[in-house]
Amino acid sequence: MTLENITIKLNVGSKKMENMTIKHQGAVAIIEPQRKRIDASFAIKFREDVVALVEQGQKKLVLNMTNVEFIDSSGLGAVVSIMKVIGGNQNLTLCYVKDSVLAVFKLTRMDKIFIILPNEEEAVARLQP
Q1: What whole-number distance in Å separates Cα of residue 95 and Cα of residue 32?
Q2: Collapsed DSSP state (helix, strand, coil) of residue 53
């Protein structure tokens, strides 16, 4: 008997979701980008994959930013686009946002638009009835 490494790729529609993990807690999907940077090289794919999830009926999202150390205007635009598709900031929370990323949100005043919470538990609780 031999053991093999098994790779599971999550398909959303016909698209493969790469560079992020998704888990569910009740009606809330928790999306955790596995990249250190959400920049022009990743933002479009990130937005497309998350929007596909929303189009399949996922209406409450937490973006767990644990691994993200940098976000540029493309990445910020992707997050804004996700918020618009999901129906506003009452259906989207962010958590574990590092100071370097939070600085971009503050500089653009997006910290006033997005619900940014310190941890995943609070972020999920904020979205549950």
Answers
A1: 10
A2: helix
Domains, in order of start, for the chain: 12-127 (3.30.750.24)
Residues of the chain with pLDDT under 70: 1-17
Whole-prediction pTM: 0.83
Tokens 């996922």, residue? 58
Phi, psi angle pair for 42, to nearest 5° = -125, -20
Rounded Cα gap, residues 60 and 5, in angstroms = 32
> pLDDT for 88-103, tens place per residue?
889 999 999 999 999 9
